[in-house]
Amino acid sequence: MSHVVQIVHAAYRLDGDDEGWLNELVEMMAPRFERGRGMVGFRWRVDQGRVIPLEFVTCKGREGDEAMFRTLLQNLDPTRARLAYEQPYCYRSLSEIAQAHPVLHDLRDDSDMQHLAHQRDVIDFEMLRVDEARCQGWMFSVMRSEVAGLEPARRALWECVAAHIAAGARLRQRLDRADLDGAAAIYDPVTDRLDIRENTLKLGSRRETLRSMIAARRQADALAEHRPLEAMALWQGLVAARWSLLDVLDSDGRAYTILRENPVEVRSIVGLSERERQVAYLVGRGHHTKLVAYELGLSPSTVRTQLRSAMRKLNVEGRAGLIRLVSAVFEAQGPVPIEDTSLLALANRPCHLPLGLSEAERDVARQVYDGLSNEDIAARRATSSRTVANQLRAIYAKLGINSREELIARLSGDSR
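The structure assignment produced for this chain is given below.
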């Protein structure tokens, strides 16, 4: 039986086509994910309100399950398609989604479910959705013979797995194969040598963080069989919101662990930093703070700070407002028409640098406003994190403030 860490390793395999990759994931997931009636995995995209399934794999079900599922998808009206494939969530049951919407309040009244699914002993579906880009992604769905509820531990575990499937899918789009060329760092487990090639990772604290994450990832393999949730907590989705860890074999057959650049790339028509865009986008897609921290390899406190900063710049109040705006603001293909009243609240605020700061302090303040950490700023300025911290303390003293949040608010022109 495959354990969850083995499934995650499989998510980062870059060889073969997408159908083969999906088939391997579904076969490895099924023993732990499905609940006796079978599961399906497929790639999807939404086009003009219709869900179009692409690669499709069934496992441990009955003959005819794929035809049933394809017919259900074909018959989905735009409202149901939007709720299941565009509304914000990561892992929910169809009955949970239905209870939140009057059109679908009781699945037993859904004629398609009655005619197509109920007669095959399928009453509900668990849906683990992995967004690849706007209006497309991967779905892993468990067929249930009763109305399903998701236990908190099960939800937490498979949300972590989904974070790695998403990262693996991004890498497959970026790379044809996994090798040492272009790696930001290379770890040789035989010699315990860590060769760091990316300048921003060469700072002492970053080097130690990377070593500890490599060690934690190896420990996750040992814990996965009997303590899967604890194991998954050790291997976060990204390193510092930018890099993925994966194993490769060199041409001589030796195994290495490498770091490859693999950020969540989000276009935005609003002036947010990269990290603010990532956090706001994932929260806007319905991911809770703890999950976003796991996906990006950040601390929950950093996620909350970035989220507050992004929401201040977007001039939205609360997550509900962010969720309403995120699909229009992020992934936009061009300027948003001013007549789009849902976006009239947006404020692309410039950075207001106060007088009285030195040139170095102004540069540090601007980079804090852009969402960079002290370590990132130090790497860009070719100095130490301690120097940046001292400069920040001087900025706080001059402005009469005490935190990054207050500094960002001041630079945004917000006096609250």
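Interim note for the steering committee: The first strand starts at residue 39 and ends at 47. The CA atoms of residues 85 and 135 lie 7 Å apart.
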